[in-house]
Design a protein that fits this description.
The chain is of the alpha/beta class. The chain has 4 domains: 2-88, Ubiquitin-like (UB roll) (Roll); 89-261, Alpha-Beta Plaits (2-Layer Sandwich), CATH 3.30.70.20; 271-344 and 540-615 and 627-661, Rossmann fold (3-Layer(aba) Sandwich), CATH 3.40.50.740; 347-519, Dimethylsulfoxide Reductase, domain 2 (3-Layer(aba) Sandwich). The strands form 7 sheets. Strands 15-14-25-24-23-16-17 form a 7-stranded mixed sheet. The model has no long low-confidence stretch (mean pLDDT 93). One of its GO terms (biological process) is ATP synthesis coupled electron transport. Its cofactor is [2Fe-2S] cluster.
Length: 665
């Protein structure tokens, strides 16, 4: 369809909102209540445009049509925007727009030369009861975003509206946020345009006076970020959209780091279990005890009595050091990761990814069809935002498949949403495979390169008995795979891995221009799948957990090993057999509290430097943004190497060597 915007004609192949049509072509109009995660509401009435035959209308909840002519910079439109903004500012406190200039509402006040008008604030509208969230409803502009995101996206009812019209007021459940059922997701902070709901650390320590470039490692997207520092404290993290589009929309990266960095369970000195209590000891003493335990175990039981488990992401340089320590000095192959414990056959899937290459995240909007499988919006929100933006702007078809009972924005912002339980998901995969194979829509030569017995493989697929409901679903999915390239983003579940491999190979052989990006939700230590080389890649997680139970000394690197484990009961049983467990972690967690004999404090990603691998094969740099007493894992492993008779390694040399192992990126 053809649409004129400010006198210039544009072509669109899909019906999208006027606002998204404007933004897709670099034309910005002010918004306050609009957020891509929420259904358009139009309450602020700032996104006004003039449309031929319709007059002045809101652009966020009206759609383009063929022949439409849109004017965004009309004097009448600008006058109405300013008047609407002035009404919102009438009951807003004076001074905040200069104190917090980066708030969306304050940016608009400054743009239009306005300020608040309220001189005295109502102290009864302050709420400091929550440890992470500060509330000052004097600053509320009644956009209702907090109410809507809490109910419609998160599935909670923490925020409510009382009274009506001019007297409307947003209140927390049970009057105080700290007494409510809030789960501390901080989505309400993220969608609040005025700062009425704000991050407590910004309030306590002040707005950032400088930003430091780094990368977030809380998921394998490994988004480039800018870390805001105030009074030598980290107070804010924002995705750097100049390097990765829509990364600023990630609620995990923006807020969940606070749960670790400012945790009450942070430890700054090594702890040694003494009876049922912990005793503080010096770092040197802790390393000496650990080195002696390793040496005694090797002497008495052999090198295979010692092992390491990685439960959090560590830098590539640290992987190099760990390999050197374990394989060259201790002379064992006992390095495990949380993904080895959670997933059978996951290495087979990632060996295909290594060969075929995933799609770059910045190229998502170039995809003709995107297939999202699993709860991507919750665990990888930046990536989910990229899907939604590609769909909202009419660039891509979007097919969403998951087993989520709660609402997700992506359910409505897609062409097809299919609810499927895990067992049903495998049946859907098989239905798609069977249809493509039976219709002869595949490249036999391609499949022959990737399966052991091509004829047996094809016969097996053809013999699948597809139930009617899954046949209908498969037809629905395939009807929307009409634009190339195709990209599959899938949160891996153990039960689906073998069938997922089959699905990808058959789709690839049928459409050719197909990519797959697996995502890990439980224990996302992506790098381990490419760097830790195991003697037997096909060991089941049960065999690995049993192996761990036979160790005498185990060193766990990272926190939440038991929490992330999908085989918690079996793992706890094995860990309980080990004579000595040491954990290297920033916090004392469940594993350390009940199973470890020693905890050595390590850094968070804000206090270290190193390189990490993103899930789309980019090398990301993490920079130390805060100087804080304590050791990085690189230093701890190095000090252990020296005590076991090795030589200190340099980071530059470690990175150089590890890059040679990653020559596929």
């Amino acid at each position: 369809m053809r649409v004129k915007i400010n006198g210039i004609e544009y072509n669109f192949n899909k019906k999208i909102t006027i606002l998204n049509a404007l933004r897709d072509n670099g034309i910005d109009v002010p918004t306050l209540c609009y957020d891509e995660r929420l259904n358009p509401y139009g309450s602020c009435r700032l996104c006004l445009v003039k449309v031929n035959g319709k007059g002045i209308i809101t652009s966020c909840n009206n759609y383009i049509s063929d022949g439409m002519e849109i004017i965004t910079d009309d004097p009448d439109v600008e006058m109405l925007r300013k008047e609407n903004l002035k009404l919102l500012a009438e009951n807003y406190p004076i001074g905040y727009k200069d104190k917090y200039p980066d708030k969306k509402f304050h940016e608009l006040l400054n743009k239009y030369g306005l300020d608040g008008n309220k001189k005295v604030e109502d102290e009864g509208l302050y709420d400091k009861s929550h440890p992470y969230i500060y509330v000052n409803m004097n600053r509320c502009v009644n956009c209702y975003n907090c109410v809507r995101v809490c109910e419609d996206v998160i599935g909670k009812l923490v925020w409510r509206v009382v009274n009506r019209g001019y007297n409307s007021l947003i209140v927390a459940e049970d009057d105080k946020l700290g007494n409510s059922s809030c789960i501390s997701c901080r989505s309400c902070i993220d969608v609040c345009p005025s700062g009425a709901i704000e991050d407590s650390f910004v309030i306590n320590y002040g707005s950032p006076n400088k930003f430091v470039e780094s990368s977030c490692i809380l998921c394998s997207a490994t988004c480039p970020v800018n870390v805001g520092i105030s009074n030598d404290k980290p107070v804010m993290i924002k995705g750097d959209e100049t390097k990765l589009k829509y990364s600023a929309n990630c609620i995990v990266g923006r807020y969940q780091w606070e749960n670790l960095y400012y945790s009450n369970d942070r430890i700054m000195e090594p702890l040694l279990k003494s009876g049922n209590n912990w005793k503080r000891i010096k770092y040197e003493e802790a390393l000496n005890i650990l080195a002696n335990k390793i040496q005694d175990s090797i002497k008495n039981y052999g090198p295979n009595s010692v092992g390491f488990v990685i439960s959090n992401r560590i830098a590539l340089e640290e992987y190099y050091l760990l390999n050197k320590l374990v394989k060259e000095l201790i002379k064992t192959n006992n390095i495990y990761s949380i993904v080895d414990l959670n997933y059978n056959n996951i290495r087979e899937l990632y060996s295909i990814i290594k060969e075929e290459k995933p799609i770059k995240l910045n190229d998502i909007e170039k995809m003709g069809t995107i297939i999202s499988i699993g709860d991507v919006e919750r665990h990888h929100p930046a990536i989910s935002s990229m899907f939604r933006q590609a769909w909202l702007r009419g660039k891509s078809n979007l097919i969403v498949i998951d087993d989520i009972d709660d609402f997700r924005s992506i359910h409505e912002q897609s062409d097809v949403y299919l609810y499927n339980e895990k067992k049903g998901l495998i049946n859907l995969f098989r239905a798609i495979e069977a249809k493509l194979i039976k219709e002869g829509k595949y490249d036999k030569d391609y499949l022959n390169k990737h399966v052991n017995n091509i004829n047996e493989f094809l016969d097996k697929i053809k013999s699948i008995n597809v139930e009617k409901q899954y046949e209908d679903m498969a037809n629905n999915v395939l009807s929307y795979i009409n634009k190339l390239p195709i990209s599959i983003f899938v949160e891996v579940e153990e039960e689906m891995i073998n069938e997922l491999i089959n699905l990808y190979l058959i789709l690839k052989s049928s459409y050719r221009n197909v990519y797959i990006n697996p995502l890990i939700k439980d224990g996302d230590v992506l790098e381990s799948l490419y760097i830790i080389q195991r003697e037997n890649e096909n060991k089941t997680h049960k065999e690995i957990i049993d192996e761990i139970g036979n160790l005498k000394v185990l060193i766990i690197i990272g926190n939440n090993l038991v929490t992330w484990s999908t085989k918690r009961e079996e793992l706890m049983k094995s860990l309980g057999k080990i004579e000595f467990i040491a954990e290297i972690s920033p916090i004392i967690d469940t594993t350390a509290r009940y199973l470890a004999k020693m905890v050595i404090p390590s850094s968070t990603f804000l206090e270290k430097d190193g390189h990490y691998l993103s899930e789309d094969f980019n090398l990301r740099k993490v920079n130390k943004v805060i100087e804080r007493e304590g050791k990085q894992e690189f230093d701890i492993i190095n000090d252990l190497i020296i005590r076991l008779g090795g030589e200190r390694q340099e980071k530059n040399e470690a990175l150089k060597n590890i890059k040679s192992m990653l020559n596929f990126i």
